[in-house]
Amino acid sequence: AQMDEVDAPKIRPGQPVRISLDALRGQSFPGKVKRVAPYITAVEKQARTVDIEATFDDPAAPGNLLVGYSADVEVILDVRENVVRVPTSALLGGGRVLVAGEDGRLAERRIRTGLSNWEFTEVQDGLDAGERVVTSLERTGVKAGAAYTLEEEARGK
Q1: Three-class SS of residue 114?
Q2: E-only strand ranges, the chain
Q3: 72-102 as b/e, with b when 16 or more CB fall inside 10 Å?
Q4: Model-level pTM greater than 0.90?
């Protein structure tokens, strides 16, 4: 796997990882960092990365893997339990989210964020558990002051 060079100093052999494979959508497998390359690779001018190798904790868990499968390896640098979190995709620039206000309209709210990955971002301040944030930012007309309707999440996830 390739990690951004700014994260390289934080990565050590033995650290836990979460491995997800494009071929096995919706599943992830625990593993460990096996090796961190002692050099930085410059693929393109703007992309400087360090190569790491990771192993599955249980090599049999994902079943028969084909050579060449693509995988994402997420190195777990820190873990927080029992925190308020929002989908990372719900964040606007500058640590802001759109919140479903009491008046039936969307309101912009600045929050203080903590740990983050591509799925979720920890909210340290500015949002209470149970408050509703907009996750469909790409829809036309979704902005502060707009009226909203609630769509219940699909059950059985």
Answers
A1: strand
A2: 2-4, 16-21, 29-36, 41-44, 47-56, 71-75, 84-87, 96-100, 106-110, 112-116, 120-125
A3: ebbbeeeeeeeebbbeeebbeeeeebbbbbe
A4: no
Give the pLDDT confidence of 3-30 residue by residue, as tens digits.
Answer: 888 888 889 999 999 999 988 988 999 9
CA-to-CA distance for 20 and 74, rounded, in angstroms? 8
What is the identity of the amino acid at 55?
A: T
SS (H, E, C) 80-112: CCCCEEEEHHHCECCCEEEEECCCCEEEEEECE
Residue type, 4: D
Q: Residue 9: helix, strand or coil by DSSP?
A: helix
